[in-house]
Specification:
alpha/beta, 5-stranded antiparallel sheet
């Protein structure tokens, strides 16, 4: 008897080995380290039960659960986690999870839970089998009758049921078209699938598309949840479309696409959904006539009616390799004969499909189709089929009659229209001539009423428009004069309004002219700087702001470059010795036609903002404690699970040599892993003890790249170096910063398993200028960039990159980037990144030339 298959999904090799040790005596166990491998395993072979870790690198357990259920909703899934939360449990149960298992677990608990899940899986299989057996007991007994026509119908149903072709059933209302459709379904290969019947004529027209294809939540008013359409409900079975002739034209086009592409799109959705459905359509109308009238698409008709009508087949015969008749549908007595004539001889000698026109002995014109029959690459014989041209010729004759009648009607209508147009043109032309003469004499109040919409009418409208334009232009001149007077008055009011605005602004405003002299100082600026407007006006800005030379540097730099400088953080030192934290922005002032007038500077007091930032940092540290605790629980419980499992089996399986080898491999490795986690965590938590000295960034980057030189060469990764020549040494802890660069290079190496390009840069932070300003001290910051062309980071993961214990690598602890973030902050800098999935990731570190470590607060560790 085949043992049930259990798939174990966990990124920890020790946990996977523990599961295998407990389960392998009872079940066939397959283990994988991540979500994509699990999905591939479910697709590749049948799986009865999945033991799924909820925290996996890249794709988490909840997403893997949803995708497994999309592949095979009958697979049972038990979620395994170190920390069980109510919200995660509810989400998992809604997606179809069987139950939860919390690490570390007891052996009996795991075996019992697995047994119950597999028992439910077995019961579902038995129910499906019973349903299929019950469906097989149905036959054509619902279609009653012994007449030869009914016997022929039974045979036709049996013949059609063995295929997967689309079927069109025609007949009057009440003749049992749905019974025939159900019989085809029950006798066919899709008997175990659902049979879904829908009558579009009985559905409100605005809801037909939603009923057939389904809709997404919010697709229209009242769509408060997702709904599956009839096509999705019939997946794997048969969809019966009754009264197909009532579909409106746009739905006919969508149905045609579904039949061609075998995929649908829900109303309000953006994703195509593959379907496996056999379509049986029925109608009580003549669809051929509907096609002729243009109310039913011809291409859809042929998609539904895929086979030629039986009465169009004149004969069917099979020839053997010698050209003799092996079988004949119309004249069985000709079996064994060699047919004479050009058409039979050409058909018998055909090496590929051949189509010929001929006439039967009864005088009926037919198309003769001949196809050679090949067996093992050799010609065994030829199959011939004769289709009557009678119906085609009748259609051609009817089309010719319709075209002739249409031509006669067109000629009659054209003659009548020409006479009518001639009568309508004569009178308007005379009126137009008289009106034009009056306008030429200066009588601008003339108006010609257009009686037609043709060229004559448009010409009359053009004359009326010209007279109206002359009047409007004179009126416009009068209004322009009055407008200029109003604008002059508005300018006077605007000046007073601007002065009031400057006086009411909470931000300080200072302006200087082209010589660098102060022109304006609003009340807020007076309060911030301690200078009055009267004593400041006319003085050079370098003299006025001698206590804070950065202000005058920024104003003079903007005056020279004509480029704005936004939001520069400064400390404003006043002449009374006090200081205020501010943000200072500058922009050039321009007058009419781009004339340079000077520079405007804006002060913004950020004292409250700095206090708020300090409070937010304190809150962030408290919130991070919860995340750190959850990550620590997960990382510690994984190796603990392995240690507990092996220790419990030590006494029972100690004599097993294979068990001892696995014990010697797994247990020391897990103990070392716990020790490594604790060491890295202590390093993350300890206060920084940094030793600052002058270092060159390019040398540290080269040292980090040299550490991985062999791996870079083995993976064919090109290293590109871009170092600015004028970057001086910075004050930093050499070894701490080296660890940051090593971690970033290692991450880039992991992101490019199949090769790529690694770029390391060092330069100035100048907002686009290649060189730092000699006067702008706030620009004395440098940046380091480590860029790779690897797999990138998913947008959903970007806010967790620097979290402790977050990692996308199998076996990683997730502390490397957290430590790097802490080290950069201890240097008074910041680390950020940008990433695009499939294109790569760039980490950017900004550091001051002179280290500015953060000031410890009273709640700092």
């Amino acid at each position: 008897m085949t043992r049930p298959v259990i798939l174990v999904v966990d990124d920890d090799p020790g946990v996977r080995e523990s599961f295998r040790l407990i389960l392998e005596d009872h079940y066939h166990v397959v283990d994988v380290p991540d979500g994509p491998s699990a999905l591939e395993a479910v697709r590749a072979s049948p799986v009865d039960l999945v033991l799924l870790d909820i925290r996996l690198p890249g794709m988490d357990g909840i997403e893997v659960l949803e995708r497994i259920k999309a592949i095979d909703e009958r697979v049972e899934v038990i979620l395994v986690t170190a920390v069980k939360t109510v919200r995660t449990a509810v989400a998992a149960m809604k997606l179809g999870a069987f139950d939860y298992l919390t690490k570390p677990f007891e052996e009996d608990e795991l075996l019992s839970l697995s047994s119950r899940a597999l028992e439910r899986r077995t019961l579902e299989r038995e129910v499906a089998l019973l349903r299929s057996e019950l469906a097989r007991t149905h036959d054509l007994d619902e279609i009653v009758g012994k007449h030869p026509v009914m016997e022929k119908l039974h045979g036709l149903i049996a013949q059609v049921a063995r295929t997967s072709a689309t079927v069109l059933i025609t007949g009057e209302s009440g003749t049992g078209k749905e019974l025939v459709a159900r019989a085809i379904h029950r006798d066919g290969t899709r008997r175990e699938g659902p049979f879904v019947a829908v009558n579009p004529a009985a559905i409100v027209e605005s809801l037909i598309e939603s009923e057939l294809f389904g809709h997404e939540r919010g697709a229209f008013t009242g769509a408060d949840q997702r709904k599956l359409g009839k096509f999705e409900l019939a997946q794997g079975g048969t969809l019966f479309l009754d009264e197909i002739g009532t579909l409106r034209s746009e739905l006919q086009a969508k149905l045609l696409r579904v039949l061609q592409e075998r995929e649908i799109e829900r109303v309000g959705g953006t994703r195509s959904i593959k379907i496996d459905v056999r379509v049986i359509a029925a109608t009580n109308t003549n669809l051929r006539e509907a096609v002729s009238r243009g109310t039913f698409r011809e291409d859809l008709y042929y998609r539904l009616n895929v086979a030629a009508a039986e009465h169009d087949v004149v004969y069917a015969l099979v020839l053997d390799a010698d050209g003799k008749v092996a079988a004949h549908s119309r004249y069985p007595e000709r079996v064994g004969l060699l047919l004479q004539g050009a058409v039979p001889e050409r058909a018998a000698s055909a090496t590929g499909p051949v189509t010929q026109e001929t006439v039967t002995g009864a005088g009926e014109a037919v198309y003769d189709f001949a196809v050679p029959i090949l067996v093992d690459g050799r010609k065994w014989g030829t199959a011939r089929l004769g289709l009557s041209k009678r119906r085609m010729e009748a259609e051609i004759r009817r089309a010719r009659l319709e075209l002739g009648a249409l031509t006669v009607v067109t000629l009659l209508l054209g003659s009548a229209a020409a006479a009518l147009v001639a009568r309508r043109i004569a009178r308007p032309v005379q009126q137009l001539a008289e009106g034009a003469a009056a306008i030429s004499r200066g009588e601008l109040n003339q108006r010609i009423e257009p009686s037609t919409t043709d060229e004559i009418g448009r010409l009359a409208a053009a004359f009326n428009h010209m007279a109206a334009q002359l009047f409007q232009q004179r009126t416009a001149l009068e209004e322009a004069h009055a407008g200029l007077r109003r604008q002059f008055e508005e300018l006077a009011d605007l000046k007073g309004y601007t002065d009031n605005i400057l006086g009411s602004l909470t931000s300080g405003i200072v302006t200087i002219d082209l010589d660098g002299r102060v022109v304006t100082l609003n009340p807020a600026a007076e309060l911030l700087t301690g200078f009055f407007r009267g004593e400041a006006a006319g003085r050079y800005c370098t003299e006025l702001f001698a206590h804070t030379p950065e202000l005058s540097d920024l104003l003079i730099e903007t005056l020279a470059s004509r480029a704005p400088i936004p939001n520069v953080p400064l400390t404003l030192r006043r002449r009374n010795g006090s200081s205020v934290p501010i943000e200072f922005s500058t922009a050039p002032l321009k007058g009419g036609e781009g004339k340079d007038l000077g520079v405007i500077g804006v002060f913004r007091d950020v004292t409250l903002l700095r206090q708020l930032e300090s409070d937010l940092q304190r809150s962030d540290r408290l919130a991070a404690l919860g995340t750190l605790a959850a990550g620590l629980a997960h990382e510690i419980k994984n190796p603990l699970t392995s240690l507990l499992t092996f220790s419990r089996h030590l006494e029972r399986k100690f004599d097993d040599r294979n068990f001892r080898e696995r014990f010697g491999s797994v247990v020391p490795r897990e103990l070392e892993r716990i020790n490594g986690i604790v060491e890295r965590l202590l390093e993350l938590a300890r206060p920084a003890r940094l030793s600052f000295s002058p270092i060159r960034l390019s040398e540290l980057l080269e040292r980090a790249a040299d550490l991985y030189a062999d791996q870079l060469d083995d993976r064919h990764i090109e290293v590109v170096r871009e170092y600015a020549r004028d970057v001086p040494p910075i004050q930093a802890d050499k070894e701490a910063l080296y660890r940051v660069f090593v971690n970033l290079v290692a991450n880039a190496l992991d992101a490019m398993p199949r090769g790529g390009r690694l770029t390391v840069r060092a330069g100035w932070v100048t907002g686009g200028d290649p060189l730092p300003s000699a006067r702008r001290r706030t620009a004395n910051r440098v940046k380091v960039e480590v860029e790779d062309t690897g797999t990138g980071i998913e947008p959903s993961e970007t806010d967790r990159i620097f979290n402790p214990f977050y990692t996308t690598r199998s076996g990683g602890t997730g502390l490397g980037l957290a430590l790097a973030h802490k080290i950069v902050q201890d240097h008074g800098g910041r680390i950020t990144f940008t990433s695009e999935p499939g294109r790569g990731t760039t980490f950017t570190i900004v550091l001051p030339l002179v280290a500015e470590p953060p000031i410890a607060t009273e709640d700092s560790p």
